[in-house]
Amino acid sequence: MPDDARAHRRTATGVGLLLTLVLAAVLLSALPADHRREDGAACPPRTIASWAYDGALTGEFARYGDDPARADDWTGGDGTHSVRLPDGRLLWLFSDTYLGQVHGPPGPSGEPHPWRDGSAPLVRNSAVVMDRGRLAATLPAPLFPDPAPQQWRWPVAARVEPRSPGSAERVVRVLLWVRTAGPYPWIYGVPTATEVATLSLPDLRVESVVRVLDQQPVPDPTRRVLFGTTLLARGGWTYVFGGDDGQATAGRTASAYLARVPEGRLAEPAAWRYWDGSGWAAAVRARPVLGGGRRTGVGSAFSVVRDGRTYVLFTMAAGTRGLTTITSYWACSPTGPWHGPGRGFAPPLPGGQVAAYNPQAHPALGTAGGRLVLSYDVNWLETTTASAGLSGNVDRYRPRFVTLRPARPAARPPAGRGPGAWR
Fold it and tell me: Which CATH number does the domain 4-407 belong to among 3.40.50.300, 3.40.50.720, 3.40.50.10490, 2.115.10.20?
């Protein structure tokens, strides 16, 4: 986005939330066995039994961002993703990020909120290290430099994997979305490419960035697919989900797509396979695994986790409720069929014209008692006062967290269900 105000005049994720490149073939005999779909009896439906706001984790980001001793660290951002490192630390990845210092309260006009002034630096991406539950340091930002003028990189999902198949050495692979500045309505950039960065361990130094899927040859930007909004590992494969978030820009519900890569080969374009509706193809003939309806589909960013044998997808609800409401789908296989949407819930938001977006699960934070931590980003909606709205109250551009408890849906709604429970 060409300036600070436009960088935040969006209601979709900064990781906001994608194909005609033909990839070289690899020998099928070198790939892991195909993942089989579980039968319905072994894959019970999943919805959300209850949820609760996680004030402690939300407050940890406020504590770190508000620390007056920090002059060049993270003070706010969106596109929230996390990955657990082998030494126990947690790496948090963000897209558009404010650095600098936070002041107050009160604000310059008496606002009862911490605030940042208009000179606060804005970078396209950042990474923050958490150690034993406390945010400790911001890596030099931006961590991933712009690939070209008027282009930038947003980090999305990441995982630790072998440097190469069978290797004892581990590295961090980070999926990146490349965006290019464009005219309205592309206020959060035109989808351009999916890349994979390799970070060394334990020092988290960027070793390389490889472009795995170039979308520039696709003439219609609304048909471009970017991969990496979420990923999961299963049976020797990394399943990588993506979306045509340009559809959201065009006013239509986005669709979810799926690729898979053998473990240890995320940074090899030739190793990627794409779901084409009936199987896995080296050539890019991807077909959606979810979407295409008025009530079914995903936001520009979504998250998938595995609960037992059931896969659960979290996304913003379709239509106008997508500015406030998180919903879910479930399936017995990453390729679907996906069932839903389930009944949604509206997590708490700071005051003012604010939207919620980019629900992301964080299994690395643990699932004790069957619970799952989910983050969601918030942003100021008033386009004419975007910069002032975000800086006047720093809580309007920081991740928030809820804790979910998934369960099998009841045959009928339980009597007396409170407003925070849904099935």
Answer: 2.115.10.20
Asked if the bond preceding 221 is cis, omega within 30° of 0, the reply is no
Measured in degrees and rounded to the nearest 5, phi and psi for residue 147 equal: -75, -20
What distance in Å separates the CA atoms of residue 325 and residue 317, rounded to the nearest whole number?
Answer: 6
Q: What's the pLDDT tens digit per position in 286-328?
A: 899 998 666 778 988 999 999 888 999 999 987 667 788 999 9
Residue type, 179: R
d(CA 380, CA 391): 10
Is the Cβ–Cβ distance between 292 and 254 less than 8 Å? no
Q: In whole angstroms, what is the distance from residue 405 CA to residue 291 CA?
A: 25
How confident is the model over 347-361, as pLDDT tens digits? 998 877 788 999 999
The domain segmentation of the chain, as residue ranges, is 4-407
Enumerate the β-bridge partners of residue 339: 330
CA atoms within 13 A on the CB side of 155: 31
Q: Give strand pairing partners of 313.
A: 304, 329
In total, the chain counts a number of residues equal to 423
